[in-house]
Amino acid sequence: MKILLAPAETKNSGGDEASFCKDNFCFPELFPKREEVFNIYEDLIKKSTIEELSKWFGLKKLEDVEKYKESLTQKPTMKAINRYNGVAFDALDYNSLSQVEQNYIDENVILFSNLFGPILAKNLIPDYKYKQGAKLPNINVEKFYMDNFTNALDSFVGEEVIDLRAGFYEKFYKVKKANVLTFKFVKDGKVVSHWAKFYRGKLLQEIAKNGIKNHSEFMDMQIPGLKLNEIQEKKNVKLIVMDIV
């Protein structure tokens, strides 16, 4: 069983691991495909003005834009799970987990980077900026990764998947061959949106702490702050509706 997770717009800076290279990523046979997107990105960054990049990055402060105008080729890297620092990642609190729990995350969580595509939590990435949905010249990045990585992902994820991604990231990979659990979080009868990220992070934390190996084990697990409301089934997908209590 594998777990799918969305990235975050915000990232931690720094790192002390090797810069962008084949050894940093899963699916090494597909590294040339990652390089195609990477090189287009690098070319855009090199040729664009600060003002153009401000718009493309979605950043207003020019000093923030300057930070991301540097080439990524020599930037230090760190584990993807430590690089991202949004709401879900704060809730996961990876560094507070035991070594066994961290290893579980490292090996079983697949993130979907807007730049690097499908990566394992342990894969090494630099501090980069790529606003969700931003377009690179002459390529549809989401479709490119969908077309080139689906077969590898189908083989890798196995028969069961827990999908904690926001819907946008189905453009990178849609699970068709495995049985999938997805989630909706409800508070006082209303579906929560922004705070859904927080509860996805808490779900992942509990999954790691319990070393969940399959859907059956997940359904038997007690989750602090959440209570099962209903299960909606459609084809290979079960939507788990959780009440926030």
Radius of gyration: 18 Å
Number of helices: 9
Could you tell me the mean pLDDT? 96
The largest sheet is: 8 strands, mixed
Computed structural class: alpha/beta
Structure description:
By secondary structure, the protein is of the alpha/beta class. Helices cover 37% and strands 20% of the residues. The protein contains nine helices and ten strands. The protein has helices at residues 31-47, 50-57, 62-69, 80-83, 87-92, 99-108, 141-157, 196-210, 215-220, and strands at residues 2-5, 78-79, 109-113, 117-120, 124-125, 160-163, 179-187, 190-191, 226-234, 237-244. Strands 1, 3, 4, 6, 7, 8, 9 and 10 form an eight-stranded mixed β-sheet that branches. A two-stranded antiparallel ribbon has the order 2-5. Helix 2 (50-57) packs across helix 3 and helix 6 (99-108) packs across helix 8 (196-210). It is globular. The two termini are 28 Å apart.
List the helices and strands and how they pair.
Blueprint: E1 2-5, H1 31-47, H2 50-57, H3 62-69, E2 78-79, H4 80-83, H5 87-92, H6 99-108, E3 109-113, E4 117-120, E5 124-125, H7 141-157, E6 160-163, E7 179-187, E8 190-191, H8 196-210, H9 215-220, E9 226-234, E10 237-244
Parallel strand pairs: 1-3, 1-6, 6-7, 7-10
Antiparallel strand pairs: 2-5, 3-4, 7-8, 9-10
